[in-house]
Amino acid sequence: MTKHLLSIDDLGGRDGIERILDLSESFLEITRRDMPKVPALRAKTVVSLFYEDSTRTRLSFETAAKRLSADTMTFSVSTSSVKKGESLLDTVQTIEAMGIDAIVVRHGASGAPQQVAQWSNASVINAGDGRHEHPTQALLDAFTLRKHRGPSLAGLKMVIVGDIRNSRVARSDIKIFSALGVQITLVGPKTLMPNSIVGWPVTVSHDLDEALIEADVVYLLRIQHERIGDALFPSLREYTARWGLTAERAARLKPDALVMHPGPMNRGIEIANEVADSPRSLVTEQVANGVAVRMAVLYDLLGTGGPVV
Amino acid sequence: MSNEIVIRGGTIIDATTAGNRADVLIRDGVIAEVAERIATPAGALELDADGCIIAPGFVDIQVHFREPGREESETIETGSRAAALGGCTAVVCMPNTDPPLDDAAVVQAVIARGRAVGLVDVHPSGCITKGRAGEQLAPMGEMYDLGVRIFTDDGDCVADARVMRRAFEYSTALRGAVIAQHAEDPSLVRGGHMHEGEWSARLGIPGRPSAAEVTIVARDLELARLTGGRYHVLHLSTAGAAQLVREAKLEGVHVTAECTPQHITLTDAACEHYESTFKMNPPLRGEEDRAGVFAALVDGTIDAIATDHAPHAPETKAVPFEEAPPGMLGVETSFAVACTQLVVPGHLSMQSLLARMSWQPAAIAGLDAVQGRPIAAGEPANICVIDAETQWVRHASDSASKSRNDPWEGQKLTGRVRHTVLRGAATVINGTPQR
After folding, report:
1. Domains in chain A: how many in total?
2. pLDDT of A194-231, one tens digit each?
3. Nearest by CB to A115, which of B203, B274, B315?
4. Is B204 within 8 Å of A199 when comparing Cβ atoms?
5. Which label site among A134, A263, B242, B397 has the fewest CB atoms less than 10 Å from its CB?
6. At what angle do helices A283-302 and A13-31 cross, to 10 degrees?
7. In terms of domains, do B83 and B42 share one?
8. The total number of structural domains that make up chain B
9. Could you tell me if residue B370 is inside a domain?
10. Which domain holds residue B26?
11. Distances from the Cα of B129 to the Cα of B61, B170, B225, angstroms
12. Residue A58 known to be catalytic
């Protein structure tokens, strides 16, 4: 990998992606030990710099860092100097001055981690930037799917449903799964599709029922209620009726088809309650695998290359 | 000190002459003589123009000098110096200052400050509406009486069609006044930070579609037709709007248009690394629009090159792309970029380029009695001397502007301004500002 993980592009294609996924397997084994901790990153310091609330992702990263014996710091924007008007640049330079090895950045503006990487000597990990990318989510999604349908995912058909236009998860997932040979169809109303898919290895459909016939995996994105106010769709009820994975639709899926969601779910809107809890659903497993995948990323970026132990 | 200047050894290109080799004698702010060989009077300043073009000074009809209100980004003094370095003898500054140029007192203050600095003729534009709020007409007549000819809410679009209609109607009583529009429908660009297309989708940045410009220009052309008002499209950036202007001109609508050097040169791909320098409104477009605007500039549909010189203090641009203010520098590099893009590859003759940078914009802004004049005895001495052959590399750190948001940083350019003369006084000699 390069010095940073800002985008799935930084992993260097299929080989690089599979290397991290393989590494994640050994860390998953470690997380299942009675004493799930290794000294790999002792004396390294990892800072979480979260400009958006995301307890899940932040805790997942911090747990991963601690299990690698790194020191962790949290720069919580809501209680910090940022509230007093400090710029991102000044904040990064301040953190940098404390002597740190990695910054995990979550920011509402696309490209913010790229800028942090330009300003900092530390490794920068993108924990979600605006509508751009969320590479560790994509890695844990690929890792989770590989455990069920791997080692090769080539030829699988994935349907991604929902607000692709505004989704960083979708952009990273499209990159990682297409690199692994998965055929991707994006489904939703045109208001939620990207304005351009030039160069995207996907097809677009506005008919969910048709797209589901062949699907091996259905990936549902969280619907943001506030999109209704921007005239992107008329109502949640209509969204569920046309684009939601209802129990009836799930019943028509191929018998071994799987269902994924990055969380947090809106049960009863994009995913029916019984589908979320059905054996098809990988949702809780996705969360569980997040720590191992993030350990692999931190180890790969900060480790000395020695054995994991 | 003598008030005489001899410009020696250059080739004159103006609206009436393309390639007449001559010396030019300037006395008391006026061109005294143009002849093959003029002896230098005792004590006169001699400006070497060997191998250079002697042309009427440039007129940049869209600059932001930020004064009053944003003096940390630019002042009338620093902006004037940058303009003089760019070969300008006149500029029109946009009214989106703080307070905005929406009443006679603020306009008067800008005029006075421009005169005191004296590096370029500073002509304020005036707001169309009070506070640039798009609702009530600003006192256009009072500002007109101070010399304002271009009225615009630039930075913002006059979105309300009824207000725009009234502005057109009212302006017809003000001979030579023109209603200039920043043509982007606010409802279509709300929340957008770059051109909507391939790159915005990839980068995950909400877009500003070309349709936002095309729809406003289409509407405004109908209103200009209806009212008989004069319409000017600021920084035209789409192939669609260019085509509408082309057709409207054929039908006799009173319309003119300008484009920036950046919109004919760069595309939205420049935003690939989230570099906020390349953020502006209207945004850098896709290749189809870029090519369409380029073609419209070449075929004469677009009358003028203006820069939308928009300085922003470095700390305001050193933020995530979506949080950065829109705008880029330009007044200093306009000729060099245009020469490199248009004249060097043979798309435009030098005279046609100078038309778009000098006498045509002067006419749009009602300055053609003193700016963009032929280089001939008796004419006001507003002149620039340009070396069209020299190649150089642009470094923003050399800029006279207070800001550094320069899209041409590190670019190799062909053509450079050597001297600038404003009403008979040298403002720039050998690329060095005289004050």
Report:
1. 2
2. 999 999 999 999 999 999 999 999 999 999 876 777 88
3. B274
4. no
5. B397
6. 110
7. no
8. 2
9. no
10. 4-54+377-433
11. 19, 12, 21
12. no
